[in-house]
Prior knowledge:
6 strands, single chain, alpha/beta, 6-stranded parallel sheet, 8 helices
Amino acid sequence: MAQRKTSRENSNGFEREFGNFFGILCYLFVLAVLCFMIFVVLALFRISSFTFDTYNSVNEIPYNEVGLLLGTSSLTSDGSSNQFFVNRIRAATQLYEQGKIDYILVSGDNRHLSYNEPRQMMNALLRAGVPRERIVADFAGFSTIDSVARASKVFMLRDVTIISQEFQNERALFIAHNEGMNAIGFNALDPTSKWAHFGVYFREIFARLKCILDVYFLNTQPTFLGEPIQIGTSPMPKEPSNPPKHATSRPKQPSAAAFALKHPHQATLIAKEQSDAAIILKQQNVALQHLEQVVQRDQGGLTQ
Length: 304
């Protein structure tokens, strides 16, 4: 009877401890979910805050050498003209004609032979009067993060004007800021009927959530990179020349030629001092040789 009572008490004690432990786990899980939700909400506000770095007026937007035109299809699913595409082409053309950009980097999806966003944008810009030599194509801009990251890591851009509708510009500027770029956005017009394109705006919610994961948690990189490509006067990466063999090596001193170029007067004085020292040393050597000859002659006379 006593053993059965003791066993029942131990069982109740274990259930009580397990219940407390499970309760703590549930509390920590709920707390973690709440913290994550708060973080996501703050990140979404952060993306939306980049609207202050976008412009609607060609006259007000500052100059950047290169404009990054984000890609989309020229046609909708029913075969009609895509107003997102048309308005982006018009916006990029206006920036070029008003001298706000000198080059247009068209970046879009080219996964299949039958679908080529950069080529569609290039053809549209050419028809709008933009010279071919002012258009650069990026055929690996499969997503917004691909287009922006490749603009930074492949095309070596730091100051750039991103061209798209405002909702995508905000997300693209968020990515550009994470890449260390000094980017601004130029807002192309939205379609006349937003309700007709409700699906695009609804998908933007999930695109922003994915963008937060890509930037803060997954560190997502472009699908393809490659050798640096220069656009206009954008600086190319500099390779280190004659680096020290070890991190702790002493700094290398400039050669005499380099010193003479930077300090000609001091170099002249040093050269004169070195010349005078050489003359004195030569005279000393001649005197020593003469002295040795005298000593040898005297020793020879004593021997005889």
